[in-house]
Amino acid sequence: MVVIQPKPGQSTAFEQGYQRHLEWHKGANDRWTWHGWSFVLGERLGMFMDGTFGHAAANFDAAVQPTGDAADNAANVVPHADFLSHGVFRRLDAASVGQPLPDASPFLAMATYTVAPGEETAFERQLAAGATAPANTGRAAPRFTWYRLQIGGAGGQYVLMRAVPSFGAASDLPEVLPPGARALVRGVRTELLRYRADMSYIPKD
Fold first, then answer.
1. CATH 2.60.40, applies to 2-87
2. CATH 3.30.70.100 given to domain 89-194
């Protein structure tokens, strides 16, 4: 996952340049999906996030035309934006419920939790134990996906993703963090992102 901040006064130029870069991926016959979102709530308001998901780490050694990708990115995107973070995350299937996220849902609710060094195993054990639908709540079974930051930032970071159908629905999401895991949390950041179909690339079958 990559977080990008358009340079002051260059939001339109950034978006146009990024769209040209997606055209490069299309022309290169890239078979990976690249999703894009704009932050609409939270401290990264106005920034952009993109990412490609569902790959083994070894797949990145065989990404499509790395040299050409970097050159096109440098020509079309870099002049108009600053790259603030770039992290590799591992999906925690045992702690997740439903089809893996993210997808092309209208909004993405994202919460980043930080746990203290040495508490990661206990935290993940609690997440896995709580990965069941709440009983007798009258709600549909929740759908959520957990990720652990593997490399590219401070340790002990976990990201919870949930698909949201509308802006208003984001304020009524059920709690899915198990109490045992909550006791291990040292910090949390909550954000809402709007899906950008015009800033995403989904290869045709």
1. no
2. yes
